[in-house]
Amino acid sequence: MVPPPSAVPPAVPPAGPPAEPPAGPPGWTRLPVGARVVVRRRLSPAEAAASGARWTDVVGILTSVADDGLRVRPDRSPGAPEVAVGVADVEAVKPIPPRRPRRGRPEDDRADRTDRADRTD
After folding, report:
1. For a Cys-Cys bond, which of 25, 65, 86, 99 suits 69, CB 3.0-4.6 Å?
2. What is the CA radius of gyration of the chain?
């Protein structure tokens, strides 16, 4: 038996005024410098036009936190400059676990074993 239409809840919540953001500083301002984070940031109009995207993520170490924004040293790009993100461009900041240690390449491990096997000490 199908319930009458009045008993079925609407699939989409009714439209209304947007929710007010919570008062006070954003939660990411309490993250400790040195934490590994992922930051979703809004691209500038020029970056958005060039890439066709609206957002991008930066994964790295938090180097500075202030009321007006934050700075992140990217993980994957040694020597790359820090990324400064203004408070208006921050969509989300999430702490993430430390990067797992890299394991050596299998061919490096084999070469090391071969060298040891060939020794005649």
Report:
1. 86
2. 24
Tokens describing residue 63: 């180097």
CA angle 114, 116, 119 (to 5 degrees): 110
CB 65 within 8 A of CB 31: yes
| Burial group, residue 85, by CB count within 10 angstroms (0-12, 13-18, 19+) | buried
| pLDDT, tens digit (0-9, with 9 covering 90-100), for 59-80 | 999 999 998 999 999 988 778 8
Cβ atoms 36, 60 nearer than 8 A: yes
In this structure, the strands spanning 55-66 and 90-95 are unpaired
